Amino acid sequence: MEKNNIKKQKHSKRETASRIIMCGPITVWTVLFIVLPVALLVFMSFLTKGSLGRIEYRFTLKNYAEIFNPAYLNVLKESVLIAFWTTLVTILLGYPLAMVMSKLRKKTSGIVAIAIMLPLWVSGLIITYSLVIMLNSSGTVNSFLMGLGIIKHPLQLLYNSFAVIVGMVYMFMPFAVLPMYSSIEKLDPAVIEASEDLGASPARTFFKVQLPLTSPGIFAAIILTFIPCIGYYMIADMLGGGKSMLIGNLIYRQFTVSRNWPFGAALSVVLAAIILIMVRIYTSRGGSMDDLA
Amino acid sequence: MAVPIVQLVNVDKWFEEDHIVKNCSLDIEEGEFLTILGPSGCGKTTMLRMISGFEHPTGGQILFAGSDMAGKEPYERDVNTVFQNYALFPNMNVADNIGYGLKVKKVPKEEIAKRVEEMLSLVRLEGYGKRRINQLSGGQKQRVAIARALINRPKVLLLDEPLGALDMKLRKQMQIELKSLQKQLGITFVFVTHDQEEALTMSDRIAVMSEGVIEQIGTPYDIYMDPKTRFVATFIGESNIFEGDITEVKSDRNMVVETKEGTMLVEKPDEMLVAEGYSVPTSVVNLTNAELEGEPKTVAEHAARKLSHMESGQHISICLRPEDIRVSLAEPDVPHSTAVAKDKIFIGDNTRLIAETASGAIIKISHPDREDLPEPGERFYYYCDPKDAVVILE
Amino acid sequence: MNNEKRENSFRSNGWRTASYIYLAVMLVLLYSPVVIMIRFSFNDSRTNVVWQGFTTKYYDKLFHDANLWHIFFVTLFIAVMVTLIGTVVGTLGAVGFSKTRFPGSRLIEDFIYFPLVLPEIVLGIALLLLFNFNGIRLGIPTIIIGDTTLVLPYVFVTVKARLSGMDPSIEEASIDLGANRMYTFFHITLPAIMPGVISGAFMSFSLVLDELILTSFLADAATVTLPMKIYSMIKRGITPEINALTTIIFLVVTAGVVVYLVSSEMVERKQRRVEERRGEAAE
To answer: What is the pLDDT of residue B299?
Structure first.
């Protein structure tokens, strides 16, 4: 017991005070506005919905059971599918872009990176809105295609899953390009040369050497696309025209139209859980949270 | 005797489960150049940081001129530090860096400017005041760091491996400059390094540390000539260590020691030499630590206790420096051993002989005259002057 | 010297041409929606289909819309408040957490990152529940709290990144020279991490200006921000007025971003010049 006493770290009082001033505000803020609300959300997900959207303090698992209702499972499936396609398209379009950028001069590639990010940085909402203008039946894409005589009647480009995926790709690709770019950038060109020197074809070199070596960047890009995709409901709302119901929209409805807060809370908990598990996989494989900002 | 300017009394430091500094006591006298020497991880930097106040001892006391420093912040202590990587403020120019300590104390601007100029000329950087930090070379940064630490006129200057980042040539030059600066100012310097040569060149006294323990304190000469522990003997300079048992203590103070290599004759250390180099505070303060019951409390007690062990049957180690081993091709008439020469290396002012002893151990011998040494493959005799052998009792 | 090597890094001229074409196509795709939006905001027609002549009448209308000005100032006020609180709390936290470990600090740090990955809708609902349970009325203060929670991790991360590049012993040097912790923070630590603080603040500001989901959950009926206004206008249909409004916002914010990037690039270039000079001096 003597030893325990000795081992205790002694800090001076003033040192402790300064640390409280530093860590105190963010800790209190985090507890009050992140931990507590999330705890409440979990709590709410076990309550019962009363009449007229009232909440009754009766414990139930019904909200979670309801998720397995085929209609809702369908929404979940649709959300994951859209997120999957968006991620796929993003990686397929983004990886070559990252490769091109890595071949440019350092300065130029910096400018290109900023140019790619700029519209989104300024406003995702505005980009989504401009897509509505572009894709609508009398919009630019249709007039362009009709002007060229490729199509006779306007295509239905808006208010379907296609439009939602286009919107999501616009929204998330710029962010996904950056980690891929930095991992390609770090790649030692000598490795590629060595592979070709040993007689591998460019295609073989790409698939057997470059792709595996840059996979951490691709992985980060997947995380950066897939995660926000599942929860983002605005794009589906604006470009899907309410026809394309994603889990985000479903949650939103529970708190507005349907006034079923406990069920909305349960859906939120499930959504958060899916995402946190993915993040957990990401960090446990060496990904850094700092790269997601 | 004056009260030491800094005293560490039975200082202990734990980091979680690691015992970094173990019951260390050390008196630092006013005006001396004391070096804490040891391999990395031995606790020397922690010791320095406890003096400056960045770490707090888990046990024991630190006294400045007799008063306890417990709970005193670094900014309340009359010591300043020269940090390992200079730690210059990147957002300020040279003059602002040096004048920082005075600006904090709200010294009038004209006074600051005057004293900064003084400091600049002290470290021979006149005219560099307006330079930015990233425009300086390593040596110049070093000087700015020293000037910045000295402007507050501290009683003690702490230097944490300050020359580590400099190249060899600059390092040697700075060693000389630091030493002369210390003499000129008369300030106590406490210097931490892992470089034995640096320690031997500059210090008045050296405290050798290993694994949280002060192994020996003494002048560079004593430390080199009379290492008290096996660690000190091997860490500072080169040593050949022979282990054996005392078989006889003769009336002329020589002891006969039976080692694996053969019989050796060594001189019994005298009381004075044994007494030196012990880390017991000369003015024993507040020795209440229960663990110390029954331990020797004064230097004299230490010496007596150690000497009492020097009798037949005692297992000891004998340390011989390469230059202390005598070589002979003819059989000498004193106790001796044999070895076979393996390699002969000419290194300028000396020739180095590497040889294998009867038991297969490697010994290193250094001799000024190349001609006297056996050729590789040749068998030869070696022995030592009993006065040159250093007895280590562990 | 590195540049020359990189210029030759294309496999062949064919590859290079293909690469440039790909890059150009991607940039055209990324920018065409915005360009079309800007073009139609000057079109003297109520539909976006055909070009009927240049006009600025929608802009005139916007500038004389008192309600819109009010919304604009509300949005600006929220953004400024959030940026202030978020930057101060986030910066202090990043500095504090970089040197302190206390029981549960690891967990708190994980929670600080939560808003980065949690969908805004989940965070919005959770906060809505909190305010609801405690009977707190929604309004501008609740929006400020919500948006601050959202931007905190961004400030935290950028300041942390800056801190990890800072030599911690410069703080000790300051304390060693007689400065107390407060003096050290303002004179040594803050100047050293300032670029991180500024970019964190900048990020917060632009995030909040564009923030819709969290804001709409935490706003009362009387409070409308610019993104909320645009959203509700869009839901009612595409009009030239929205084109004009979004064009203004887009151009103003773009100008802001560009000015910020250019100025920080200039600061960096100045530093690089100093380092080059030092390199020459060393030789």
So the answer is: 57
Chain C partners (3+ C-beta pairs within 8 A): A, B
Reported CATH class of domain A69-292 = mainly alpha
| Averaged pLDDT for residues B293-297 | 54
State how far the Cα of B360 lies from the Cα of B342, in Å rounded to an integer.
Answer: 12
Q: Round to whole Å and give the CA distance between B206 and B190.
A: 10
Q: pLDDT value at position B273? A: 57
Which distant-in-sequence residues (6+ apart) come within 8 Å of A114 by Cβ?
Answer: C261
- At residue B305, the pLDDT reads 67
Are A195 and C86 in contact, with CB atoms under 8 Å apart? no
User: What CATH architecture does domain C58-165+193-282 belong to?
Assistant: Orthogonal Bundle (1.10)
Please tell me which residue of chain A has the smallest CA distance to B291: A2
A125-149 core/surface letters (b: 16 or more CB in 10 A; e: else):
bbbbbbbbbbbbeebbbbeeeeeee
For residue B218, list its beta bridge partners.
Answer: B206
Could you tell me which of B317, B364, B319, B358 has the C-alpha nearest to residue B336?
B358
| Separation CA C233–CA A126 (nearest Å) | 12
Q: Could you tell me the residue ranges of all domains in chain A?
A: 69-292
| Min Cα–Cα distance to chain C from A70, Å | 23
**Pick from A273, A274, A265: which is nearest to A64 by CA?**
A265
Please compute Rg for chain B using Cα positions: 25
Q: Report mean pLDDT in 10-residue bins for chain C, 283 residues.
A: 46 79 90 84 70 79 83 92 95 87 83 86 90 88 93 91 86 90 89 88 87 88 87 79 82 83 76 58 46
Specify whether the CB–CB gap between A35 and C104 falls below 8 A.
no
User: Which pLDDT band holds residue B34 (cuts at 50, 70, 90)?
Assistant: very high
Long-range contacts of A182-187 (CB under 8 A, 24+ apart): A182/A217, A183/A213, A183/A214, A183/A215, A183/A216, A183/A217, A183/A218, A183/A220, A184/A98, A184/A99, A184/A102, A184/A210, A184/A214, A184/A217, A185/A102, A187/A102, A187/A213, A187/A214
**Which helix (DSSP H) or strand (DSSP E) does residue A48 occupy?**
strand A48-49
Which residue among A6, A9, A14 sits closest to B12, beta carbon to beta carbon?
A6
* Contact (Cβ atoms closer than 8 angstroms) between residue A225 and residue A82: no
3-state secondary structure of C258: helix
Min Cα separation A12/chain B (Å): 6
DSSP-assigned letter for residue B40: T
User: Is the Cβ pair A15, B73 closer than 8 Å?
Assistant: yes
Beta bridge partners of B351: B346, B367
For the beta carbon of residue B248, count every other beta carbon within 10 angstroms.
12
Q: Return d(Cα A282, Cα B117) in angstroms, integer.
A: 56
Q: Three-state DSSP class for B266?
A: strand
Cα–Cα distance between B118 and B120 in angstroms, integer? Answer: 5
What does the pLDDT read at residue C81?
Answer: 95
Task: Output the six-digit token pair for B204.
Answer: 């008045």
Q: Identify the bridge partners of residue B97 per DSSP, sorted by sequence position.
A: none
Q: Which chains touch A (3 or more CB pairs under 8 A)?
A: B, C
Contact call for C26 and A115, based on CB within 8 A:
no
Q: Is the pLDDT of residue A288 over 80?
A: no
Buried b (16+ CB within 10 A) or exposed e, B117-148: eebbebbebeebbebbbebbeebbbbbbbbbb
Beta-strand ranges (E) seen in chain B are 6-15, 18-28, 33-37, 59-64, 67-68, 79-82, 156-160, 188-193, 205-210, 213-218, 240-249, 254-259, 262-267, 315-320, 325-328, 337-346, 351-357, 362-367, 379-384, 390-392
Q: β-strands B254-259, B240-249: how paired?
A: antiparallel
Interface residue B14 vs chain A (CB under 8 A):
yes
Residue ranges covered by each domain of chain C = 1-40, 58-165+193-282
- pTM across the whole model: 0.79
